[in-house]
Amino acid sequence: RKRSNAQAPTHPNRTHATRTKPRDTHGSVLMTVLYVAVMSATLDGAPLLVASQPEDRVASHARDLQNLWYKRLGVSALVLGVAGFLPSLYHLSRGTVWSVSHDAPHTDVDVILKVHAASMCVWFAAAAVQIPTGGTRFKAAHRRVGYAALLALSVGMLSGAAWTALHDAAEGQAIGAAYTLLLAVCCWANAVLAAYHIRRRRTAEHKDHALMALMWSLDPAFHRAVMWLIRWAMAPAVPDPTRLLIFGKLPVNALLVLCFGAMAICAKRLNTVVMLNVCLQLALFWAGLAMLVLDAAGLEGSPRPGPAIWVPATAGAIIMLAATVVLCAVARITHREAQRKVCSRPRGSSRSMGEQPDVTSGALYCSPTGAE
Question: What is the pLDDT of residue 269?
Fold first, then answer.
């Protein structure tokens, strides 16, 4: 179009230059777009031009809801766990490794135990950084601290399992050794799976496994807090160290089930990962309660514990059963309410161009046929 008349192609039968008229492609593209928009607005179902916007809003809402409740209850559980370790850290600052069950200096202190204590301190310090920085713009710091936390947790769980096998299992404390080994395996497996999922950009699954790893690592911290409370409540009486270790786990399992179960319900993350971990803690609670009943009945040939042990344990069992029923009922009601909100559109109805689906439930919106 910029060529001059002299350079323009000429017809052999014409003495003057001719110019070819360009096609109006912009008009045809615009008409095609308008046609697709009008037709999609009249079709039954979601409009074609805005179909991705509700899904993006729903995914963003679910992510924000998960971050909100995981951070709130995660920080609360971490603060309670650190409070349980404070008396032990106080004695450690004075150069003594303290045994809470015996309320005396620890007698089996070696290099493995020191490595375990140092590694777990690094793990909890890293967890205090990971929870606030998750889902924020501090992605580089979150990633580096996360790998350091995984390394510290791996060393801590391995050293803890080794110390348990060398001391507790060798001294005939089979029940305590089995519990500690199960705790180490569950904690380390969830941490590894959290790293596996984040490498594949699955942030929701990464957060589930990271919070479950935190739950298992907080078990000893909660245990120490409960044992200190029992000692202070029974003073000046001195409880039996072995029974204190075993039966002190009952309130710990109850707290972990209620705390992290409520967290999953509020965040609407009742999935297989969370349910398996929380239900395993619930099974440990009922196993400990069965041991308490056998011991109280004197079936093991040992003296029966006093009311200071079995009365709080029985009351805790009743409260635990009621709380479990309430959690299950709330979870079912929440799930059905989410389905009702999301799938409330009648079969065969149409959606206008500007209408948006309900995104308050945190789940994907339904198809026009009513399926999720």
Answer: 86
Residue 280 confidence class, pLDDT cut points 50, 70, 90: very high
Q: What's the CA angle centered on 127, arms 125 and 131, to 5 degrees? A: 130
Query: Hey, how many other C-beta atoms are within 10 angstroms of the C-beta on 172?
Result: 9
Which one is predicted more confidently, 193 or 267?
A: 193
Q: Furthest-apart CA pair in the chain: how many Å?
A: 125
Reply yes or no on whether the pLDDT at 361 is more than 90: no
SS3 364: coil
Q: Cα angle vertex 283, ends 281, 284, to 5°?
A: 65
SS3 of residue 237 by DSSP:
coil
CA dihedral 240→241→246→250, nearest 10 degrees, is: 70
Q: What is the pLDDT of residue 50?
A: 40
Q: Are 253 and 285 in contact (CB under 8 A)?
A: yes
Report the amino acid identity of residue 100.
V
* Of 269 and 216, more confident: 216
Distance of CA 190 to the CA centre of its chain: 10
Where do runs of H (alpha helix) occur along the chain?
25-42, 52-93, 111-133, 139-163, 174-199, 203-217, 219-234, 241-247, 249-267, 272-296, 307-342
Identify which of 342, 57, 80 has the alpha carbon closest to the alpha carbon of residue 222: 80
pTM of the model: 0.70
Residue 98 φ then ψ, to 5°:
-100, 140
Q: What is the CA radius of gyration of the chain?
A: 31
Helix (H/G/I), strand (E/B), else coil: 142: helix
How do residues 293-308 score in pLDDT, each as one tens digit? 776 665 555 555 566 5
Exposed e or buried b for every residue in 28-50, given b needs 16+ CB within 10 A? eeeeeeeeeeeebbeeeebbeeb
